[in-house]
Design brief:
The protein is mainly α and 123 residues long. The chain has helices at residues 2-5, 11-14, 18-47, 51-61, 64-93, 99-122. It contains six helices and no strands. α3 (18-47) runs antiparallel to α4 (51-61), α3 (18-47) packs across α5 and α5 (64-93) packs antiparallel against α6 (99-122).
Length: 123
């Protein structure tokens, strides 16, 4: 009965649903990764060309802003992975009552991976 009322609900109400938020996070993380990874691989490729450039690249990676960006990259990768796993479950099993727990798991996976990465940076 509730599903029949969903098309009549205002658009702002549907956009606050956890499934919509998970959809947006998954798409945004994929887009940001698609933009960032070519630049990242280009930077690694130019840094490896010479030993002096590689040393300057390593010094640049010690910058706190760079470490924060790496933390963001890890969270994006984990969020995209969790969102992708959630979508696979949805595709192969359909909508179930556990779907909200799958959304929470996808977000938790991203945060835990980022925190583990931060703890590893401090060691």
């Amino acid at each position: 009965m509730k599903a029949a009322l969903l098309p009549l609900a205002p658009s702002w109400r549907r956009r606050t649903h956890p499934a919509y938020v998970a959809f947006v996070v998954h798409r945004a993380s994929g887009l940001l990764l698609a933009l960032f990874l070519p630049v990242h691989f280009w930077a690694l490729g130019t840094a490896i060309e010479g030993e002096a450039r590689f040393e300057s690249f390593l010094r640049w990676t010690d910058n706190p802003l760079t470490k924060f960006a790496e933390f963001g990259l890890v969270v994006l990768l984990a969020a995209h992975l969790g969102g992708g796993l959630r979508l696979l479950l949805l595709e192969f099993s359909g909508w179930r009552e556990w779907q909200s727990r799958a959304i929470a798991f996808a977000f938790a996976l991203g945060l835990v991976a980022g925190l583990v990465f931060l703890l590893n940076l401090g060691a």
